[in-house]
Amino acid sequence: MPLTHRGREILSRVPGGTLQSTVGVGCEIVRREELCVGCGKCATNCPSGASERGDYFDVNQLLDAPAGSRRGALGSALRRLMRHDPDGPVHVPERVTVYRTILYDDEKCLGCGTCARGCPAEAIEALPPKAEAAPTGAADPAAAGAPASEGVCA
Amino acid sequence: MAGATSAAADRKIVAFCCRECAYAAADASANARTPLPPTVRLVLMPCTGRVSPLHLLSALAEGADGVMVAGCLLGQCHYREGNFNAVDRVAFVQRLLKSVGVEPERCQMFTMSAGEPPRFVAAVREMDRVIVGLPPLPRSEASGNREVPLAAARGAA
Amino acid sequence: MRAGVFLCECGGNISGVINLEPLAAHVRGLDGVVEVNVNQFMCGTEGRAMIEKAVEERGLDHFVIASCSPRFQGPTFERIARELRLGENAVAFGNIREGCSYVHGHEPERAQEKAKKIVEGAVARLHHMSDLPRHRTFLNRSVLVVGGGIAGISAAEELAATGIEVHLVERQQSIGGSMARLSKTFPTEDCAMCSLAPRLTGTATNSRIHLHALSDVTAITGPPGEFNVTVRHRPRYVNEKCVGCGECAAVCPVTYPNDFDFGVSERTAVHRPFANAVPATFAIDRKGWSPCKTACPVHTSAHGYVALVAKGRYEEAWRVASEPNPFPSVCGRICTHVCESECTRGNVEDPIAIAGIKRFIADHGAPAELPAPLPVFYDEPIAIVGGGPAGLTAARELAQFGYKATVLEALPVAGGMLRVGIPEYRLPRDVLQGEVERITALGVELKTSQRCGTDFTVDSLFNDGYKAVFLATGLHQSKDLPIPGLDQKGVLRAVEFLRAQALSEQMTTGKRVVVVGGGDVAYDAGRTAFRCGAEEVTLACIEDERTAPASSEEIEEGKEEQVAVEYSLVPIEILGSNGAATGVKFQRCTLGEPNERGWRPPVPVEGEYVELFGDTVIFAVGQAIVDDFTAGADGVTVERGQIGVDPDTMMTGRSGVFAGGDAAAMGPWTAIEAIAAGRRGARAIHNFLRGEQLVPVWDAEADKVKIPHTELEPFEPQARRIMKTLDGVARRTTWEEVRLGFSEEDVRQEAERCLDCAVCSDCKSCVTACPADAIDFDQKAWDEEITVGAVILATGHQEFDATRKLPLGYGRFQNVLTQSQLARLLAASGPTAGELKRPSDGQVPKRIFMLQCVGSRDCTSSGNEHCSAICCLFATLHSSLIKQHYPDAEITIGYTDLRAPGKAHEEYYRLVQERGVRYVRGRVGEILEEQDGSLTVRMENTMTGSKSEEPYDLVVLSAGLEGSKGTQDIARVAGVQTAAAGFIREFHPKLAPVDTQRAGMFLCGTAQGPKNIPDSIAQAKAAAARAISMLSTGFAMTPAQVAASDLEVCIGCGVCEASCPQTAITLTVGADAHSVVDPNVCRGCGICAADCPTGAIQLGGFSDDEILAEATV
Question: Is A43 a domain residue?
């Protein structure tokens, strides 16, 4: 299954978010690391520096990546070779750009949703603040009844 | 096959060679009939910058006991900087292998100029020495967890 | 897939090791293989026939050639596939010769096994190979060459010789570059200009070379083969009629450092850099308007008349001053001279005394005879109401346009406020009268004692046949303050007081006079009071001392005449007894917050009162309009004290009635503003009557030159001349003019202080002098769009700025030069005609020291690391030339290492050494200047370690080479990278030395790095050859091995865009962003494909599938 149409199809097959952070203002940012392709757009776009391209890579991100994706192919090859679970994150040399774990600091996150809007892999979702979030399908803050003043979510 | 060489004969090393330097050096050494270990299999690349971690890991996963990337001397890449990318990608793959318990020396980078056939020969012999000195690379069947046909890496439907 | 496999024996080279029959049998069983053949030489005609037959009979769509290295015969088989219409990517190769038989001859069994795998891999690859698109792109068979030095010229000539159209763009006004400025060239010592001049002429006369001199390339867009180039042509101000006679330069009053001679000589503003310049036309170095001209409300070229005065040409100066302004004598005396406020010299010290200079030329340069009447072209008579500066100026302008203008003045005398507002001791009556007469002499009719609203009306003017009316009635009434006691005896209003005095000359005041007000009118009233009998005059000013509104001259002269001034006082009551004023009661005030117009209203301080006593009180707190003229002028309105006009057209509410001057202005109410209004009004009336566009009536779109303070270094201070005046107290009883004017000596020295901000002074002397009518001040910069297939960058170098090496004294000591400057002094065509004269005293230097590696081979932050390559021989050449002309000269060259590689260079160095030039390996710590301009060089001999201190007459620094400013600029425009010291980076230092990072752009000459002339020419011709080989067929096929992005898979993350070293990839904008590869720019390295996180971008012929299929067999 190719990673087409911005990951929609894969998104539907993947279990819920692996990292959720709620902060005081704005949206709740849900990041699906399995979908991340490592392009770093979220880090480039983040106005507060909450997202950042790390200098290490969590090997599990390869092993857990969905079949059909580039990382999935790499993970599959690694799975056939591995003798034990990954020792831990590996340090990434300078010119390897896409195999990097994106550091995400929920302390710094404003919840503005810029990362979600810009994510080409649709690996990030910005949900309305938890308290007011509708139980399902809450991608649209207006539908979830978020106050207009916080309507910056993607 | 004779027993003495059977261990070596089973081994396979895939050598991704750039067209401008490494493959040219290989041709030149071959024209001088310099013997090389038959473990090595040349794959022509336009530039080592084309070699991605996927190529290296997949070759290992699909039967190679070692992979090597051979390119131009650093700073002499005919596309300016492709070999710098290759050096970093090889280092990255080595770290990946190490983190899951595979000998990182199964993946190595070498550089040489087109006018240095002996350097190419030395690189291949070194790689052969390392790989023959290691047991065959064990690999499990494709994991049931996530079925990934190799060719699909490109995303072909 | 129907695949064929062709196994080559290579005449035994392969079959001697590998048994091909079993291999063929093995291959036959592979998926997709329908045909397997073996041949002795697949690369021969038989082999080709075999492939053709198989394709035809077995319907092959792909095939494998198992033979030698694909680097060797690959292209042969790819061509066969193309010719058999199998497409671009139909052949896979099994390298069983170099990859197998040649290297495993000692292990034939394993070689046999390996050969199987190799061919299997190739067959596996076939399954993933698909045709690759290639496009034919048409190439524009023309080339842009940027830079007209020897490299650019050489490239252009070479290109033109092959029939390619060349656009040669040069930033300077002539081509020739650095070579034109050399004296001779090493090692042959032949004259640089002699070898260059024929090439310049050849370039100029070559019909295929389109020369764009004095032009810049401002944009290059589009793909290689079809670059769209924007060339900005800067105005030359001399058109193609120029015959190169040089009459213009002979009359140009400006002297400016000659940049062509590296500042060792001076040149005029209109000039030609050297005799053989191409194009041969002169050009005016004109940056725009000097600040003084910009500042002046009528845009008088103050710079122009100042430059002429410096040359003693007073009558021409008068013409420049009076051209836009009929009152130069008046303005030379009483103008508020905003020109001086904007003077660049004023940023550092006192500005130039422009007004004083103007007065001098008006007094001494004006022609004695009156001008002849002007012919009337148009039959619409025009009435001008008000004979002040605005009305009279408008009348003169209209007369010059060709109208009959009649001025109607309410008072018995003409001149308006100049006549009845400004006292005689500031502006003598005969001076004003002289200028009024110059206006009436042109045919302007002046009718005095004609009051609008009383003696005639606007209606009656139209009834009398006038077609347009200009109202310039001024402000002839004092404003009153609403305070008690105004109606007492001894209370006067300044405007009325001054007018009565001017008309009757019989006014008397009391002994003690209090003037309320602090502006120029208050001073005029106070100082006039002295001349009417007052013994004590006190001004009471609302403003504080810092913000007092009077001009500095009035304040200064008032002080000299002992006018007492009290600041920060608001009048609240006129004191008096028996109906006669005895003084004024004031309240102390401070200034409040500024309002939107910047005016700070006074804020009274509670309880602080001041009383000033006097028997005469004069109010000078503002002027107001007398609006009686509106009777019989329907549509003309007076609102808030001024006539209502459209600010763009100056027309009042009534068609055909215009207004200007003080009466229609918010202020400042100055003579020069009124004159400007007169000029604008005349233009507006002309446009109105001729049915032309009503707006705009004023042109101020010229480039306004402003020289930043930082560019003024080094700056020679020169004090401003002080104008003599009559003695301060003694003059209080006389009406004679207070200020006496400059002497001729003073005025010329003062004029020489001018810094020539815009270089050209706009004096227009050249316009008159030019016999070919070639001077055209209306030229504007314009952009030209051209399309070219390729670009060659030849923008050259510049000399290292030796002032960065402070201890060497360059720029501080007159006798420290650079080699480039020395080259000009030694050039037969240079400023000294080849005579070596040192700058400080013009003497021939005897002891000369040359210092090498200034700014080169220098790892400090102020220098460059590279060797500039030419300096050792440049210094050697100059030493040799000096030694031949002046055998007595003692020349020492202090070098780091003597480098003379290249043909005949070492021989030349030895020859010059034998001529007696001393070479010392050494390092200079410091150069000191002696009293007489001679120099002391402190040096360490790095051979012996000894230190020395030696006297020299002249020091020449061999300053190194850097990429020129033009090179930096073009690199930015063209999007190519620069490396250290500003040289453009070549694509590959060894393999592609004349290619840049951008496809279709090549480089040559010193823009690439330091080099001598023959190397520059060789490189230029190489760059030309690269461009020719690119464009020779007129079209190109995009290569197959380029990256391409699959839009279905691409997610638009932009990783490839960042990773491409060629900038071949761009990301589209929008919700469906994806990457697009320009196949003309892509060089096929595949870095993008390796980095792509989705596999959307793939390299043609090297897709992941193809590579993995082969690598995993």
Answer: yes
Radius of gyration in angstroms for the set of CA atoms belonging to chain A, rounded to a whole number? 16
**ipTM score assigned to the predicted complex:** 0.91
In A, which residues are within 8 Å of C1094 by CB distance? Answer: 2-3, 37, 69-70
Give the integer Cα–Cα distance in Å for C336 and C345.
18
List residues bridging with C920 in a β-sheet: C894
Output helix, strand, coil percentages for chain C, rounded to the nearest 5.
30, 20, 45
Which H helix or E strand runs over B132? Answer: helix B117-132
Residue A65 lies inside a defined structural domain of this protein: yes
Taking alpha carbons only, the member of B154, C1072, C1046, C1074 closest to residue A69 is B154
- Tell me, yes or no, if C1053 comes closer than 8 A to chain A by beta carbon: yes
Higher pLDDT, B4 or B24: B24
Task: Write the DSSP symbol of residue C974.
Answer: H
Total domains in the fold of chain B: 1
Contact check, Cβ <8 Å, A97/C1091: yes
pLDDT for the residue numbered C647: 82
Domain that holds residue B67: 10-133
Distance CA C316, CA C22 (A): 105
CATH classification at residue A75:
3.30.70
C1061 touches chain A (CB under 8 A): no
Helix axes C429-440, C389-401, angle to 10 degrees: 30
| Strand-pair category, A90-91 with A56-57 | antiparallel
Residues 959-978 of C with CB under 8 A from A: none
Is B79 part of the contact surface with chain A (CB cutoff 8 Å)? no
Give a yes or no: residue B143 inside a domain: no
**B151 interfaces chain A, CB cutoff of 8 Å:** no
Within a domain: B4: no
Return the exposure string of A73-89: e unless at least 16 CB atoms fall within 10 Å of the residue's CB, then b: bbbbbbbbbbeeebeeb
Is residue C766 within 8 Å of C252, Cβ to Cβ?
yes
Q: Is residue B124 part of a domain?
A: yes
Give the nearest chain A residue to C1051 (CA atoms): A120
Does residue C485 register a pLDDT over 90?
Answer: no
Tell me the pTM. 0.73
Name the residue among C279, C287, C248, C258 with its Cα closest to residue C174. C279
Q: Print the domain residue range for A90.
A: 30-122
Residue A21 reports pLDDT greater than 80: no
Q: List chain C residues with CB under 8 Å of B154.
A: 1049, 1095, 1098, 1103-1105
Check CB contact of B44 with chain A, cutoff 8 Å. no
Structure tokens at C1082: 């892509």
Tokens of C136: 């034919």
Residue B95 near chain A (CB below 8 Å): yes
Interface-testing mutation among A81, A84, A91, with chain B (most B C-beta atoms within 10 A): A81
Residue of B nearest to C100 (CA): B38
Instruction: Answer whether residue B20 is part of any domain.
Output: yes
Q: Give the percent of chain C with pLDDT over 90.
A: 77
Domain count along chain A: 1
A145/chain B closest Cα distance in angstroms: 39
Angle at C588 between CA C584 and CA C594, to 5 degrees: 120
At position C769, the amino acid (one-letter code) is A
Flag whether A67 is in a domain: yes
Q: What is the 3-state secondary structure (H, E, C) of C473-508?
A: CCCCEECCCCCCCCCCECEEEHHHHHHHHHHHCCCC
Residue contact B85–C106, C-beta within 8 A: no
Q: Which residues of B touch A7 (CB under 8 A)?
A: none
State the smallest CA–CA distance between residue B33 and chain A in angstroms. 36
The closest alpha carbon to A41, from A89, A102, A108, belongs to A102
Alpha-carbon span C90 to C92, nearest angstrom: 7
- Asked if the structure places residue A71 within a domain, the reply is yes
Q: What is the CATH number of the domain that holds B15?
A: 3.40.50.960
